[in-house]
Amino acid sequence: MFRYVSNRLITSVVLALFATLVVFLIASVVPGDPILAMLGDLAASKPEIVAEYRARWGLDLPLWQQYWIFLQRLFHGDLGISISTGRPVLADIAQYAPATVELGTIAFVNFLLVAFGVLSMWQLVLVAFCQGTVFAFNMPGIVRRRAIPPAPITPTVSIILSAFQSPGACGLTFFPAPG
């Protein structure tokens, strides 16, 4: 048992390091220069200002050294300073996390309401067409018997309802478009 747990822990650490490497490499090869975007056109035209900001943010270092500094700061809980807001990233996350959790909770509750509503309606349709061979409110039975797959219900209903959001349709604007 100890060997199994230790193997899983070692694998988890290696995968976490690999994930940070992939994220770091993707962020570094994305086209565009964050320094030029931050400085704007006027300041970006002056090479000495650009060089000063590259040194300040550590972008003048080799890629392996940037990754090493990234890992050191990450292990110390320092996620850095946001270029767009100028504040620590952890402070931005702490500020926006409650709203994100609230939106996620509302989305999950809406998912449950729509899923169970669609399952109930589908079961009533089956009862009408199958002459009562399926009990009227046995929703898990329908999913268990694979009469309706549970995964595509919510995206399908979301796409259908978001179609009503267009100006020429019914004028419903409270359904978000899927994305």
Describe the structure.
With 179 residues, this protein is an all-alpha fold. It folds into two domains: 2-88, no CATH class; 96-165, no CATH class. Helices cover 68% and strands 0% of the residues. The longest helix has 42 residues, at 89-130. The two termini are 44 Å apart.
What secondary-structure arrangement, pairings included, does this model have?
Blueprint (H helix, E strand, L loop, with lengths): L1 H28 L4 H11 L2 H11 L5 H13 L13 H42 L8 H6 L8 H10 L17
The helix-strand sequence is HHHHHHH
- DSSP helix count? 7
Average pLDDT confidence is: 77
Strand content: under 5%
Which sheet architecture does the biggest sheet show?
none
Query: What is the domain total for the residues?
Result: 2
The coarse silhouette is: extended
Give the fraction of residues assigned to helices: 55-70%
Question: Which regions have little confidence, pLDDT < 50, spanning 5+ residues?
Answer: 131-139
| Structural class designation | mainly alpha
Number of extended strands: 0
Straight-line N-to-C gap: 44 Å
Rg, alpha carbons: 26 Å
